[in-house]
Specification:
The complex is a heterodimer of chains A (205) and B (225). With 205 residues, chain A is an alpha/beta fold. Helices cover 18% and strands 20% of the residues of chain A. In chain B, helix 2 (56-64) packs across helix 5 (154-170) and helix 6 crosses helix 7. The chains are: A alpha/beta (205), B alpha/beta (225).
Chain lengths: 205, 225
């Protein structure tokens, strides 16, 4: 549907467009991170394209293929995905790029907040959850997690069961009394099965 | 009321009787079970602090509406200052980011104070088994009653409130879990008959209350003999 957009991008930017495809009707351009801002500005300002609504921005972590699948020119661990829609022309496009090395070193991208001001909080979310730094963002702070939080929880290397409590949990010493739950409540009453100890393991009643 | 020197809360077993002397009126004195009287007064005048963070709040609103009418149990008056309230309702999911706020509000409340965990998320974190959710508010504040459900029916919450009233009138403060309410043995058969079952209620009795079932069988045998 918006094959035209992909063709114009290929004509204009050439080598910066690493790959395009239209799988399942979703037109996608995989671009070079250094041209991220330039391409976005073009998509926003060109009167024939007129992408005036940034729908979503998110990060997708590929820790095992950070060097890219052999069939493509993509390299980088964290894929940043931008969905755009044109209200006037009624077409949409998906733009992807990959940043960061194996340990997320150099995961930086140009901020698009002056192209679409609505991306301000979305870029903060990607920074918070995935750890991508946006150059030129006016207020790059965490938006969902608290400032004391360390790490980026949607990176696949973040341990699944790791929490970072701000208030220390109660212990029998701090409470001054036994805090075990009484019958009929078990110690793990109501707990998700993922958090309970394995009942088949030795020593767990 | 005059100056009361002794601590008022305690278990019945330790101090079965206590007397209260009213200062400035030496002519007469009153003798009563002070803890029982105070417990009776407290359990029907719970001033609540609603800490509502999630979808359980809808069920909480239903609980306050005329249909379920929390006011019947004297627990309907909300106080939006923790200093004036003695029952903290934790209604909904508590994230790690909210935990310091909840903890501070609990600390600001005047003693004696009670906490009711409303719903599965407040009780155990529910299905939010992740980096951002507190796995049960009892990790940071002592909880007196846990009401399970996602969200719990108002009837379940009322049951939890009655359990809390039992606990308050008993003067029990620890451990911070309410003992299950024991139905009198004469009521058990009646309760069982209300359940949807086809067989003899005594079959179910053995699951519900083994001791009671044993007694009834003994009585039956002695009756036969």
């Amino acid at each position: 549907m918006s094959q035209m957009v992909l063709e114009r991008l290929r004509e204009r930017f050439g080598a910066a467009i690493l790959e395009t495809h239209s799988d399942f009707g979703d037109d996608t351009a995989i671009v070079d991170p250094s041209a991220w801002r330039e391409i976005a500005t073009y998509l926003c300002n060109d009167p024939a394209l007129e992408f005036n609504l940034p729908v979503d921005l998110c990060g997708v972590d590929y820790p095992d293929s950070w060097n890219g699948p052999s069939s493509t020119a993509r390299t980088g661990r964290m894929e940043v995905v931008l969905h755009l829609y044109s209200i006037g022309k009624r077409h949409r496009i998906r733009m992807k790029t990959r940043v960061g090395g194996e340990a997320m070193e150099g995961a930086e991208l140009d901020s698009l907040t002056d192209v679409w001001p609505g991306l301000n909080w979305l870029e903060r979310e990607v920074f918070d959850m995935s750890g991508v730094t946006f150059r030129g963002h006016p207020d790059l702070r965490r938006i969902l997690m608290y400032p004391e939080f360390e790490g980026h929880p949607l990176q696949r290397t973040y341990p699944a069961g790791k929490t970072q409590p701000l208030v220390p949990y109660r212990t029998e010493a701090s409470a001054g009394m036994p805090i075990d739950k009484l019958e009929p409540f078990g110690e793990f009453e109501g707990m998700p099965f993922g958090r309970r100890p394995d009942p088949t393991a030795a020593g767990v009643g | 009321m005059g100056d009361v020197k002794e601590p008022l809360l305690g278990s019945r077993d330790e101090q079965p009787r206590r007397s209260l002397t009213i200062d400035g009126n030496e002519q007469g004195f009153a003798t009563s079970r002070v803890d029982a009287m105070l417990g009776w007064a407290r359990k029907y005048s719970l001033f609540m602090y609603p800490f509502i963070t999630a979808c359980c709040g809808m069920e909480f609103m239903a609980l306050q509406s005329p249909r379920f009418d929390l006011a019947r149990f004297g627990a309907e008056a909300p106080r939006f200052s923790p200093r004036q309230s003695d029952l903290l309702w934790v209604v909904g999911t508590i994230s790690q980011r909210q935990a310091p706020v909840l903890h501070r509000i609990f600390e600001q409340m005047m003693s004696p104070k009670w906490v009711l965990a409303f719903g599965t998320c407040a009780s155990s974190g529910g299905f939010y088994d992740n980096y951002t959710t507190l796995p049960g508010v009892d990790k940071i504040v002592p909880v007196d009653v846990y009401v399970p459900g996602c969200p719990p029916r108002p009837e379940a919450v009322l049951d939890g409130l009655l359990l809390l009233q039992d606990k308050i009138s008993r003067g029990g403060r620890d451990p911070r879990v309410v003992r299950p309410r024991n139905d009198p043995p004469s009521k058990v058969a009646e309760l069982v008959s209300l359940r949807r079952s086809s067989g003899d209620p005594r079959d179910l009795l053995s699951h519900l209350a083994p001791g009671v079932a044993g007694r009834s069988q003994t009585e039956k045998k002695s009756g036969d003999a």
